[in-house]
Design goal:
The chain is mainly α. It has one domain: ABC transporter involved in vitamin B12 uptake, BtuC, CATH 1.10.3470. Helices cover about 75% and strands about 0% of the residues. Helix 3 packs across helix 13. The protein is globular. The relative contact order is 0.18.
């Protein structure tokens, strides 16, 4: 299927799910017509935030997988999400608000701090992909432990809220936070799309990429910066949502190949669809009680990954 047609169908599906997310459940249509702004603040901004978070996490996963030449790399497995969460929790313990703006700087700092050692290891030709992955897993454990330590030592209300937030929480969405999240994700996507040909060359290996004129040091810096910003955006907005950054890039590549002119836009759209649909399930499954959206993505993502492995996805 041509990219334009697939992208058109994907955007159509995204629109349908977006409308369903706004109208699903106990909602009086006449009330909605009379109070569109209220409906938007309660449901529309949350749906828009889900799209932005999904786009950022899926694109970050795709970039990390090609940069480290490892199909299992994603913000979660490399510990970057844990670093972003640690920065956000520390910011929250210092009195920052739990709605994007207050914790975004702390989250970005934490993501970049945890990305730096991985970048140093990746720059050494002697470091294998397996060693890099293990280093990321260890950093993830370290970051999670530090998050637990900060929460145990600080009993402020801001940190107490992190218990639910760490599992993925979109309930704090506002129009401002939703627009900022989606807008920043799209800006980073446009920025990194300009490097699509260099990313394609990197698929052949770092040595081959250098041989065709790719400035690897600059490319690594830009990809790591973009990934850190994307992870920080997602974590600061909604907490830690797993499997999106792992599964969506694999699903996209199975459909359209590894050319980044196709992978980047589809990761943005399919990532948005995945989190939007997961959030709709999370708030509808046991209504009026809500399940953290990160729980839904894990419950869906884990069986999908095993199914993908059985179909020979690890060699695809």
């Amino acid at each position: 299927m041509k990219l334009s047609r697939l992208l058109f169908l994907s955007l159509g599906l995204l629109t349908i799910i977006f409308v369903a997310a706004n109208l699903w459940g106990d909602l009086d249509i006449q009330f909605a017509v009379r109070n569109p702004q209220l409906v938007w603040e309660l449901r529309g901004s949350r749906a828009l935030l889900a799209v932005g978070v999904g786009a950022s996490l899926a694109l970050a996963g795709a970039l990390l997988q090609v940069l480290f030449s490892n199909p299992i790399c994603e913000p979660y497995t490399l510990g970057i999400s844990s670093g972003a969460a640690l920065g956000a929790v520390i910011a929250g313990s210092m009195g920052a608000q739990w709605v994007l703006q207050g914790v975004a700087i702390g989250s970005l700092f934490g993501a970049m701090l945890f990305t730096l050692p991985l970048a140093v290891l990746a720059s050494r030709g002697s470091t294998s992909g397996q060693s890099l992955l293990l280093a990321g897993v260890m950093m993830g454990f370290f970051g999670s432990s530090m998050v637990a330590l900060v929460m145990a030592l600080d009993t402020s209300s801001g940190v107490a809220q992190a218990l639910v937030w760490l599992l993925g929480d979109l309930s704090r969405a506002t129009s401002v936070s939703a627009c900022l999240t989606l807008g920043c994700s799209l800006l980073v996507a446009v920025w990194i799309y300009r490097r699509r040909l260099e990313l394609d060359a990197l698929l052949l290996g770092e040595r081959s990429a250098r041989s065709v004129g790719v400035e690897m040091d600059r490319l690594k810096r830009e990809v790591l910066a973009a990934s850190s910003i994307l992870v920080a955006i997602g974590v600061a907005s909604s907490g830690m949502i797993g499997f999106v950054g792992l599964m969506i890039p694999h699903l996209v590549r199975r459909q359209v190949g590894s050319i980044h002119a196709r992978v980047i836009p589809l990761c943005v759209v399919w990532g948005g669809i995945s989190v939007l649909l997961s959030d709709l399930v999370a708030r509808s499954l046991f209504s009026p009680r809500e399940i953290p959206v990160g729980v839904i993505t894990a419950l869906i993502g884990a069986p999908m990954y095993f199914f993908w492995l059985r179909r020979g996805g690890a060699h695809g």
